[in-house]
Design brief:
The complex is a heterodimer.
Chain A lengths: L2 H34 L2 E2 L7 E2 L3 H9 L3 H32 L4 H13 L2 H11 L6 H8 L14 H11 L2 H13 L2 H9 L4 H29 L3 H11 L21 H11 L3 H23 L10
Antiparallel strand pairs in A: 1-2
Chain B lengths: L1 H33 L20 H8 L3 H32 L5 H13 L6 H11 L7 H4 L7 H12 L3 H9 L4 H12 L1 H17 L2 H7 L8 H11 L4 H21 L1 H12 L3
The chains are: A mainly alpha, B mainly alpha.
GO biological process, one term (chain B): transmembrane transport
Main location (chain B): membrane
InterPro entries (chain B): MetI-like (IPR000515), MetI-like_sf (IPR035906)
Chain lengths: 306, 277
């Protein structure tokens, strides 16, 4: 055996778990999803080719598709910006705190670790319009008390509050970037008489801009894939009983918490319209990959250089 | 003037810090307080319990299934984590150290898989596990794939292995170690923090997973995990907010405890996934 064949065999051996996983859990199901999207398929009878029928159904007749796209756009614009701005703010704050910095950092980080179902349940309780502590405090202060997860105008802001509460991941990433900005630049700016705002605008932000871009792009991907929190919030706030065999029309209240992944579940596992579910899955796939490609560009944050 | 300005700045920063800390901590406090209220008081707007009902936590464990969900969650998270680490380390090592054609392509596919939401491929996957292998109603369709490398773990481990200087590997080779021996004897001991971070992330992923158990285990309550069972807790067991919040605390607590013991590895991991040095 030549050294080259030996090298190739060695590489293949080390990669083998991934090669099998790639074929079985990525390439095959992706191809099958594309094929099913062109068929009428209920999981019992064989799939029957029906051209673009599912595509036209999902894009024009399925009433939940466009509300889900609209909600996703809302989440991308509002939730992602709130998380990035707040994460950066908390990161700046933590790098300036002198006393008990470690304690503050831990406290700020903890909510990020709360399991999503548990955190969502906690927020549905905290924000429940009847007896929730938040509305008690708001009313006590003479402020209006919204219906949060039970009001279509307030359900996405409530989800945003939940997402901002768990901003610890961004805080850590921003903190690391902020500590990497060379001190001399701040000192030079200070000598030039730059105000605190000018130092942030002209020294800090340009230095950490790749990290801000990373936070925004991963935030957009997460917003498109947002599933557990809106679904659980809708189920619990509406009083629907979860569990086996029970149907739940996602989006409570009034489609305001619908997102694309929930449609895959609803079409596939509640209506057994696998063909249409695969159409939504492919839309989700295309959107995710566009933004993943942004991250993977040469020189991008996850660029596979070197 | 300058020292006074510095003092004001110090006060402003720390006051803001305390305000932010309240925002992050108060939800936990309210959840904890409500979990200790009596059934009647949980229906009121009170914030602090009149009588502290520690028995609520025992009551949660008496709810049918709760103890079983604990066991299932530990099995899914524990076994899944071990399988993920064992299968991902060699792949990450090859991607970090071997020169071969198609390496860039493999790396790009790994990142693509990392960004892929599970819903995209769930329909063929469900049909495969349920119809071909008759394994629905259990957690095996979630555990078995972890024996074939996890994209996120591979990516994170590779980033970590890149930080190990070549000299150590060259030295091992000069001593006549093969690649596998080098990996096990030289690289793994040095990569312990990276492996710890991956193990933690994977453990938390399985602990927190809701979609997976919903697809494969929902038909069989005996196979539910904590994250999945918790959602149905309030409605299905006719319990009020006090017991629901006690259950919520019991699902959050292990994650918090693990975090306190492994804080350093965790934060290192988050930073590592962020942006390459």
């Amino acid at each position: 055996m030549t050294t080259r064949t030996r090298g190739a065999l060695r590489t293949a051996a080390f990669l083998s778990p991934w090669l099998v996983g790639f074929g079985l859990f990525f390439a095959y199901p992706l191809a099958a999803t594309a094929y099913f999207s062109l068929t009428h398929y209920d999981g019992f009878r064989q799939p029957v080719f029906n051209g673009l029928e599912n595509w036209s159904y999902v894009l024009t007749d399925y009433p939940a598709f466009w509300p889900a796209m609209g909600n996703t756009l809302w989440l991308v614009v509002v939730m992602v910006s709130c998380r990035v701005v707040f994460g950066l703010g908390v990161g700046l704050l933590v790098t300036r705190i002198k006393r008990g910095a470690g304690v503050f950092r831990t406290l700020f980080y903890l909510p990020y670790l709360a399991p999503p179902v548990a955190a969502t349940l906690a927020f549905v309780f905290l924000l429940n319009p009847g007896t929730g502590p938040v509305n008690s405090l708001l009313e006590g202060a003479g402020l209006p008390a919204p219906g949060w997860f039970n009001d279509p105008d307030w359900s996405k802001p409530a989800l945003t509050a939940l997402a901002v509460w768990g901003v610890g991941d961004l805080m850590v990433i921003f903190m690391a970037a902020l500590l990497d900005v060379p001190r001399e630049r701040y000192e030079a700016a200070e000598l030039d008489g730059a105000s605190a705002w000018q130092r942030l605008r002209y020294v800090t932000l340009p230095a950490i801009s790749p990290v801000v871009l990373f936070a925004v792009v991963t935030g957009v991907i997460q917003a498109m894939q947002y599933y557990t929190q809106p679904l659980v919030a809708g189920k619990v706030a509406s009083g629907a009983i979860g569990g086996s065999g029970r149907q739940f029309r996602p989006g409570y209240p009034e489609d305001s918490t619908l997102t694309l992944p929930q449609l895959v579940h609803d079409l596939g596992f509640q209506r057994f319209d696998y063909g249409s579910a695969c159409v939504v899955a492919l839309v989700l796939f295309a959107l995710s990959m566009v933004f993943a490609a942004l991250l993977m560009r040469r020189g991008g944050p996850l660029g596979a250089g070197g | 003037m300058a020292p006074r300005k510095r003092l004001l700045h110090w006060i402003a920063v720390h006051a803001l810090g305390v305000a932010a800390a309240l925002f992050f901590v108060l939800p936990f406090v309210f959840v904890g307080l409500t979990s200790l209220m009596s059934d009647e008081q949980a229906l009121t707007r009170d914030l602090v319990p009149d009588t502290w009902e520690w028995g609520n936590y025992a009551a949660v464990f008496r709810v049918e299934g709760f103890a079983l969900w604990w066991r299932n969650t530990l099995l899914y998270a524990g076994l899944g984590t071990v399988l993920t680490v064992v299968s991902s380390v060699p792949v990450a090592y090859a991607l970090a150290r071997f020169r071969f054609r198609g390496r860039r392509l493999v790396l790009m596919l790994v990142v693509a898989m990392m960004m892929l939401p599970p819903q995209v491929v769930v329909i063929p996957m469900y049909l495969f596990w349920a119809k071909q292998l008759d394994l629905s109603g259990s957690l095996w369709p979630l555990i078995v794939p972890m024996a074939f490398g996890d994209a996120f773990s591979i990516f994170l481990l590779r980033q970590f292995l890149l930080t190990i200087p070549d000299e150590y590997l060259d030295a091992a080779r000069v001593d006549g170690c093969g690649e596998l021996r080098t990996l096990l004897r030289v690289v793994l001991p040095m990569a312990r923090p990276g492996v710890a971070a991956v193990a933690l992330f994977q453990f938390f992923y399985a602990w927190n997973d809701y979609f997976g158990p919903q697809i494969y285990a929902s038909e069989n309550p005996a196979a539910w995990t904590l994250s999945y069972g918790l959602e149905s807790f309030k409605g299905a067991h006719h319990t009020d907010w006090n017991l629901t919040m006690a259950a919520t605390v019991l699902v959050m607590a292990p994650v918090v405890v693990v975090f306190f013991f492994a804080q350093k590895a965790f934060v290192e991991g988050v930073t590592l996934t962020g942006v390459k040095g």
